[in-house]
């Protein structure tokens, strides 16, 4: 196996347990460079900083923190370090990024930014600690290399480790629909706090990511970098008779 140049980012911030764990796990596969947000940036999706200057702090050998978003970190790493990266890895996020979570996820947003720069990318997420991630990480990488899943930048891989410490297996999964109830709770001084109640887990598709991670499996889901679907475009044109 070729040793890679790997850019490691996250959305939980530099020094988080998840990024330290992922650096340890991914290091056998290549030379790792870290560029992470100075502070937690969960929920930032693919947001970038446009009008404000960004400050960079060198934290160690090939390690930097940036007072920006996960996408900013990828942008900086891929364009400013003078390294030809083979892979971007993001995480390990503390909490699953499954179903509609991916729309808001800074962990996934970093991978979308990587695809814009034509660099393969993998997002890693885990709920309730990182033991299942440690137990299943080598299996995941073996699976990815066996099936040549890093050969395209049309998609990135969204990997979620299960609640259970012992992993039952790996499934190439679909993205599950999930009915969530989002609402606000009032605090003091006219402040409000966003809350969410997850939808029911019954009757879920067994090849979907939500079912899998709740039943002891690692899910690997391919996700696109764009909202546009050429198949949908052609379907609408045909059905609506648009020339």
What layout of secondary structure does this protein have?
Layout: E1 4-9, H1 17-26, E2 30-37, E3 56-60, E4 63-66, H2 70-80, E5 87-94, H3 101-104, H4 106-116, E6 121-126, H5 131-146, E7 155-161, E8 169-172, E9 181-186, E10 192-197, H6 209-213, E11 217-224, H7 230-239
Parallel strand pairs: 1-2, 1-5, 2-4, 5-6, 6-7, 8-11
Antiparallel strand pairs: 3-4, 7-11, 9-10
Helix pairs in contact: 2-4
What's a concise summary of this model?
Helices cover 28% and strands 28% of the residues. It is an alpha/beta fold. It has a nine-stranded mixed sheet with strand order 3-4-2-1-5-6-7-11-8, with helices on both faces. A two-stranded antiparallel ribbon has the order 9-10.
How would you state the average pLDDT, rounded? 92
**Spatial order of strands in the largest sheet:** 3-4-2-1-5-6-7-11-8
**Main structural class:** alpha/beta
Count of discrete structural domains:
1
Describe the fold and architecture.
With 243 residues, this protein is of the alpha/beta class. The protein has one domain: Survival protein SurE-like phosphatase/nucleotidase (Stationary-phase Survival Protein Sure Homolog, Chain: A, 3-Layer(aba) Sandwich). Helices cover 28% and strands 28% of the residues. The protein is built from seven helices and eleven strands. A nine-stranded mixed sheet has the order 3-4-2-1-5-6-7-11-8, sandwiched between helices. The chain has a two-stranded antiparallel ribbon with strand order 9-10. Helix 2 runs parallel beside helix 4 (106-116). The longest helix is centred in the middle third of the chain and has 16 residues, at 131-146. The protein is globular, with a radius of gyration of 18 Å. The model has no long low-confidence stretch (mean pLDDT 92).
